[in-house]
């Protein structure tokens, strides 16, 4: 026993609805049959970074400018839609490993975090300008490196007592230095 598929012919009402929809969109049926014209390529990073840089505040430009320069060094010739999330992760790792090492360095985590933030800012402007779809934003698919806990700590009470004692006994004016040191009970008021 063979089953026949029903014909999928449109009804006159469906054809009229399609024509009305095309007319409201400013299209003709011939437009649908014409070959699809390619969308012009997106700008390169070299072309687009100055546009975004001019659109942001001075503070944003000061924070992200050096990272945009690095992006431009690595990907300046590439179009915005070319880098993948994996390539962004590779660039983050490259930046983290080649960061200027300082005494308080934390393994380039801050540099990686700022690079991802700079890329997100760049791509957010590209979304706002209609250049890319939010679903095609590769920077939004890359997690920022997590911050390590702060290395800053309060001065221990015993150490603070030593500092106050040294200031009160060795300064030019021990009487004044002793008045300025906070009392043990209330650090905001000097002893009376």
The percent range for helix content is 40-55%
Distance linking N and C termini: 108 Å
Instruction: Bin the strand percentage.
Output: under 5%
The chain-level mean pLDDT equals: 80
Radius of gyration: 32 Å
Poorly predicted regions are none
What oligomeric state do the depicted chains represent?
single chain
Tally of helical runs: 8
- Per DSSP E runs of 2 or more residues, the count of β-strands stands at 0
Shape: elongated
How would you spell out the order of helices and strands? HHHHHHHH
SS content category: mainly alpha
Main pleated sheet: none
Description:
There is one protein chain. With 192 residues, this protein is mainly α. It has a domain at 45-141. It is 53% helix and 0% strand. The protein has helices at 12-24, 29-33, 45-55, 58-75, 85-97, 109-128, 157-170, 174-180. It is elongated and about 100 Å long. The N and C termini lie far apart (108 Å). 15% of the residues are buried. The model has no long low-confidence stretch (mean pLDDT 80).
